[in-house]
Write a structure and sequence with these properties.
This protein has helices spanning 2-10, 32-48, 65-73, 88-93, 100-112, 130-143, 160-166, 175-192, 205-208, 222-235, 256-260, 265-271, and strands at residues 19-22, 53-58, 76-84, 116-123, 147-152, 155-156, 195-199, 213-215, 246-251, 276-281, 291-294. The longest helix is centred in the middle third of the chain and has 18 residues, at 175-192. By secondary structure, the protein is an alpha/beta fold.
């Protein structure tokens, strides 16, 4: 409870939607009595209105009617399933222990019980391809998930994938491949109105210092890389323009860092064509639109 209290006190705004999350494990896989004990701790905060709901993550094969009734009783609002893939060949090759149908059945139960549904996906697992990942995303959309998370698969020390990697049986995606796949997936989810809560794994200490990470497309600013890649595609047609030496590019204020690109990559791309490039924020622009103007420089 001290952790909950500390986080609530750190919020500067009074009017915020606050949820308590139980992540990092299979919540509905622990004994029902323990589940209730954890959920009970949050009830005073929900009753007082300081917390508006609870969200948790679990496996699709640990969902049943009894579990859902308990979660509903204690104010759980969102259930995220670690689907990882909706391709049975990928699931089997990765020894996930569940099938695509189990994900679909559990998802239907969750939605019919009145919960918000989250379906997490992992790209680059054994046997995965871009086409299979795109198919998984389309199934996540059709199943009715309101949110998702996209995690590139990493080779973590002392895991099965670590052994497969050392034996030459598995090769993770490169960072460039992971960014490209995630770019396409993000645009697909955005078009369907599915909220992508996270792109890339949280940069834990073990990943940052390399003590856990053996191989794979980890980057602490992975989401920024993906958004920068989207803006690169948007801005690339400017390279076809002729007879212009300097250009100002106005973008939505919240998008300016991504438009410039991680490490100013997009600006550097444009500077190979223009002598001067200036990015400015325009609060009147929305989405990923931009306006261009001529710059006149001595």
């Amino acid at each position: 409870m001290g952790t909950i209290e500390a986080h609530i006190r750190s919020f500067k705004e009074n009017k915020r939607h606050v949820e308590v999350g139980f992540f990092g494990g299979t919540f509905t896989g622990i004994p029902l009595a323990e589940q209730e004990n954890y959920l009970r701790l949050v009830q005073p905060y929900i009753d007082s209105g300081r917390v508006q709901g609870i969200r948790l993550s679990t496996r699709p094969d640990y969902i049943n009617t009894e579990v859902l009734l308990i979660l509903k009783k204690y104010g759980v609002t969102t259930i995220e399933l670690g689907a990882q893939s909706l391709d049975d060949e990928v699931l089997k090759a990765s020894f996930r222990g569940h099938t695509a149908k189990q994900v679909e059945d559990a998802s239907l139960m969750i939605r019919e019980a009145g919960f918000h549904l989250g379906l997490q996906m992992m790209i680059g697992l054994p046997g995965d391809t871009l086409e299979k990942s795109l198919a998984t995303a389309k199934k996540i959309i059709s199943i009715g998930a309101s949110n998702t998370r996209i995690y590139p698969a990493l080779v973590i020390r002392d895991t099965a994938m670590h052994r497969w990697f050392e034996q030459g049986k598995y090769q993770p995606l490169s960072l460039e491949e992971a960014v490209e796949w995630s770019k396409q997936l993000l645009l697909l989810f955005e078009e369907a109105g599915v909220n992508v809560i996270r792109l890339g794994l949280h940069p834990s200490e073990g990943l940052l210092d390399g003590s856990e990470l053996i191989a794979g497309p980890f980057h602490p600013s992975f989401r920024e890389l993906v958004l920068s890649a989207i803006w690169k595609d948007i801005l690339s047609p400017l390279l076809k323009e002729k007879n212009r030496k300097a250009i100002e590019i106005q973008v939505p204020s919240g998008e300016i860092n991504y438009a410039i690109g991680y490490g100013a990559k997009n600006k550097k791309m444009l500077l190979q064509h223009f002598q001067h490039v200036r990015f400015t924020g325009n609060p009147d622009l929305k989405g990923r639109t931009f306006q261009e103007k001529n710059l006149y420089c001595d």
